[in-house]
Amino acid sequence: MRIVSGMRPTGKLHLGHYLGVLKNWIELQKEHECYFFVADWHALSTSYEEKLNLKKLSRELIKDWLAAGVDPKKSILFIQSHIKEHAELYVLLNMITPLGWLERNPTYKDQLSQMKHKDIHTAGFLTYPVLQAADIILYDAEAVPIGEDQRPHLEITREIVRRFHHLFSCELFKEPKELLSPTPKLLGLDGRKMSKSYGNAIFLSDSSEEVWQKLRGAKTDPQRVRKSDPGNPEVCLIYDYHKAFSDEETIQKVVEGCTSASIGCVECKKWCMASIEKVLEPMRERRAAIDDEAVEEIIASGERKAKEAASKKMNQVNKAVFEISCEVE
Ligand code: SF4
User: Fold this and answer.
1) Which of 32, 70, 142, 205 is the most buried (most CB within 10 A)?
2) Element (H, E) at 178
């Protein structure tokens, strides 16, 4: 299958991103033709006031992907705003997308109420599902890996495809299906959502020392005051991290040791650290081997391939819209 997925360049990636997105991408690239893009135009839809250096952030994001194991020999990596066909198709799709579809989008309403600290009453934010539709159908994606909350967006994409086909009597696009990934939510080390702005995240680029300092200060079962108090792993964040990163044997040892008070929290955190390091250490090695020049070459090569597919599709789209001529291969 051909798969398209993007990520916004808003800063360093953390373990939550790894578990929720990158781990899945790394699996998908083994079997499918994957287009992974830096969604820099999407970043502007909510962060247009923040003066982000999107050029720099986009490169850093790609470095994080490469360090995590996304393989440019298997996947096509590119930056959205470098392929102008995304914007061209977005304009055309905006012409045919009823406003009601966008205003009724439950994610739109949710985000308006959640992001009260930002002014996102903009055309760009309302219409970002249209840009997403363009990102996906431009490459004839057959499937898109999404979380449950993005289902309404993908439905809007499919509705736009059907509307285009009906209006221009030309079946140019594929209707993408969803690849629902069970994304385990990893909370930050203070129990809130893991986020750079809360200062509670373990970043993929953290050193061993930084990881340990963060784990050492993390909250555990509040009832377990002394080592001799039996604990309850189910209410402990460190146990969540064990479930995400440790093997079955270690998880079992944690449950037994914690509930019988035969291990202390420092020991338990050391085991947790060892499991996380099994993921982060290879990332550090890969990161050390990537220089800026290599990143630029990877972007240039990905863009050549993305551009070729996108411009071919836009030729067909423009024929359908401006010449009422349907040329489908
Ligand atoms: S022993 Fe481990 S699971 Fe139990 S409270 Fe301490 S850190 Fe949490």
Assistant:
1) 70
2) strand 177-180
